[in-house]
TrEMBL record:
It comes from the Bacteria. Residues 10-102 form the CoA-binding domain. InterPro entries: CoA-bd (IPR003781), NAD(P)-bd_dom_sf (IPR036291). Gene3D superfamilies: NAD(P)-binding Rossmann-like Domain. This is CoA-binding protein.
Length: 134
């Protein structure tokens, strides 16, 4: 994924479902989601153990989210990524974004074949700061 495409994804996306978003402010997922929220994205927490995170209603899975999702930002271990990608395809997400340290080439291939943009092993917060913050 080159910078031109990353910039396009970051500029055109409005709704980000954060899979594995922790209610704990000390966790990376919380920090990234909070940053994205402050940057103007609508964050949709996906965590079956939470009711609400960062002031937003949490959902147990992508299928439960009533609105269209632009980016599925994944904070799960690599072995848990394939079912998330299948849900992302099913709900019509535009992009699957696997956070720093999350690499699953088979899931990436599946998402790409289904027509989704795929970003792997990159931090959405860092890329946003690098590409869009002057």
């Amino acid at each position: 994924m080159d910078d031109t495409n990353l910039r396009k994804i970051l500029k055109e996306s409005k709704i980000v479902a954060v899979v594995g978003l922790s209610p704990d402010p000390e966790r990376d997922s919380h920090e990234v989601a909070h940053y994205l929220q402050q940057a103007g994205y609508k964050i949709v927490p996906v965590n079956p153990k939470a009711e609400e995170i960062l002031g937003e209603k949490a959902y147990p899975d992508l299928n439960s989210i009533p609105e269209k999702i632009d980016v599925v930002d994944i904070f799960r271990r690599p072995e848990h990524v394939p079912p998330v990608v299948e849900e992302a395809i099913k709900v019509g997400a535009k992009t699957v974004w696997m956070q720093l340290g999350v690499v699953n080439k088979e899931a990436a291939r599946r998402a790409h074949e289904a027509g989704l943009n795929v970003v792997m092993d990159r931090c959405m917060l860092r890329e946003h700061k690098r590409l869009l913050v002057p």
